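Figure-free illustration: sequence to structure, shown twice.
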Amino acid sequence: DETEFRNFIVWLEDQKIRHYKIEDRGNLRNIHSDDWPKSFEKYMKDVNCPFKIQERQETVDWLLGLAVRLEYGDHADKYKDSTPDGAKNTDNTAKNAEPLINLDVNNPDFKAGVMALANLLQIQRHDDYLVMLKVKRLTQDAIAKASQSKEGLPVALEKHILGFDTGDAVLNEAAQILRLLHIEELRELQTKINEAIVAVQAIIADPKTDHRLGKVGR
């Protein structure tokens, strides 16, 4: 709602930001004026807001952040030792969030669950059911693939141009790694294609010639 939006901006300036002197807030407070958008645009420039007047959601978020910083700066001693309401019962919350911490491994239900899981995963039974929890079941293909060691030279990611920017350094690095892995897969595919071409050429490139029959081949 336009009226609520304008009232919200005025409230932020009057109560929290206070960039203007009281006598200079008249144009901003005149929310029913046709010139209010111009006054608001000037206000955004005066507080160094990086967004345009059309980007309302971003502007509101930025102004709220500014208000919070100023509020904290005015009452730093009051807020520095504050604890969020959700963290007051830290111990109970941690216990509820980590049920495995207080798990009773001698509980018959726990033992029965381990046995049921072993049957489901087709893991060989052991006298000590805790040992069974450490077993990792691998297929023959997975074992064979893991046994193949690949050695190569270290890759300097900074030397490889990504071609686009996600705006996040971590995401950019992850994208570079994915692109390099994709290129490696493409090279392996190209190698297999070349091997197939060579195999076909070996069959058709050396025919037997019988001049008497005037035929090529067998």
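We now fold a second protein in the same way, so the two outputs can be compared directly.
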Amino acid sequence: AGSGAGADMRTEISTAAAFVTRLLRAAGGVGEEQLRCFRECLQEAMREHYRHHWFPLVPSKGSGYRCIRINHKMDPLIGKAAGMIGLSHERLFQLLPSELTLWVDPFEVSYRIGEDGSICVLYESPQPGVKAAKQLESRTSCKEEWRIGRSSPSKSYNMMTVSS
């Protein structure tokens, strides 16, 4: 598409739609053809919704507007795509996490499951014109967080067992 707002959000949108589709697939009971249709419908709904709310020069601008959220209420974009394949909101609540937040921003797509969960980055791309140092201090991925959180208790435990 042309330049300016919404010029290229394909990667971010397809990453986000693929993630929600994976969650549905993992829950089971939804056919592959339905999932493919759901994913396409969700991407289309997101493209439409974000069209004038995509600011690559100020990635955080409009972040709340682009945020996809399930929290005892179904996100309208997910609900719309699910409706196209005949999934009710009730069914969606059974298949998807009851609390899910998905941030779709230029250069970064991240999510959190549960209100207190860690924020995990699904997609990250260097922002043109931003110094590399800024990139390094961005959030650690879930895997890193998990590894850091896991390794410390076992080490101290090993030290205690050594002294006898």
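Summary for the second example: Confidence is low (pLDDT under 50) at residues 1-6, 132-164.
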